[in-house]
């Protein structure tokens, strides 16, 4: 029995020393020390021995088990070291290589223009307000003096969510909300997205507007002209402007404001359709009906309002001649505005 154990120890040691992978070492461990391993098998033969022989036999078996365990662990440490060394060698990292370039994004020209225009008004003491894009017909139409029969209520233009909820067709409902929460005097602008069921070369179903409103005692058309002329000068530089009579249900009197064509300086060209002028926004004195709808007394306060399309102003600022460029997200286009 003693010989058998010693042969076993020797052969185990030989095999272990030849093992080169973690898997091989584990297999050997199972082969000798596992539940059905050779050491375990030998120890079972203890039953056939006399009581006197058993202690010595037990001692020898334990000694063999310890011996194999120790050789295994030593080899395991060696193999681990080799595996690690190989790994370090093959997975080298060249820290002198140049890093990957991270490209910085930029603001979309619409966002950039919106911030720019907003800041001009902030400098003139205007508050900035926002409102929901999903709006009640009461705010989008009724409170703005747009009667049920008005063409802009037509299903062709408006996206209806339900009978009395729409995607706002302009930023003007934010006026209504603002007046509901604030007491005059105040001046505010509200930029944002608006939606109309319209899609062709010069219309997209979603676009951006900025609305403005100034209400207080003795606010007159002269104030409107002064503020808007100042604003336009800041955007386009010293330029001639003109106010043309127009109609909006929520203002009376109403006007459209034109700037001298930024391309031909008034001589007439393709952009201004030979008129020499470019329409830039709608404006007017807030209709007394609108003031009444929010609980103001039109005998006490008056106000002016205006609304402009951000896409159009962005196109004029940067000489962009195709509205679709804003929404196609071609990086070659967008990169120019970084
Ligand atoms: N809401 C108008 C539109 O969408 C723009 C507008 C015109 C707003 C005149 C105003 C205004 O506040 O006074 O076309």
Write out the strand line-up for the largest beta sheet, numbering strands in chain order: 1-5-6-10-9-8-7
Q: What structural class do helix, strand and pairing data support?
A: alpha+beta
Stretches where pLDDT is under 50 for at least 5 consecutive residues are: none
- Topology order in helix (H) and strand (E) letters: HHHHHEEHEEHEEHEEEHEHHH
Terminal Cα span? 86 Å
**Assigned CATH superfamily of the largest domain:** Bira Bifunctional Protein, Domain 2
What characteristics describe this protein?
elongated; 12 helices; alpha+beta; about 20% strand; seven-stranded mixed sheet; binds 3,4-dihydroxyphenylalanine; three-stranded antiparallel sheet
What does this 3D model show about the protein?
It is a single chain. The strands form 2 sheets. Strands 1-5-6-10-9-8-7 form a 7-stranded mixed sheet, sandwiched between helices. The protein folds into 2 domains: 2-90; 109-337, 2-Layer Sandwich (BirA Bifunctional Protein, domain 2), CATH 3.30.930. With 338 residues, it is an alpha+beta fold. The protein contains 12 helices and 10 strands. Residues 170, 172, 211, 248, 251, 282-284, 305-307 line the site of 3,4-dihydroxyphenylalanine.
Indicate the topology.
Blueprint lengths: L1 H17 L3 H12 L4 H7 L9 H37 L18 H15 L3 E2 L5 E3 H4 L19 E3 L2 E3 L4 H10 L4 E10 L10 E11 L4 H16 L4 E8 L2 E10 L16 E10 L1 H6 L8 E8 H9 L6 H4 L2 H4 L4
Parallel strand pairs: 1-5
Antiparallel strand pairs: 2-4, 3-4, 5-6, 6-10, 7-8, 8-9, 9-10
3,4-dihydroxyphenylalanine binds next to strand 9 and strand 10.
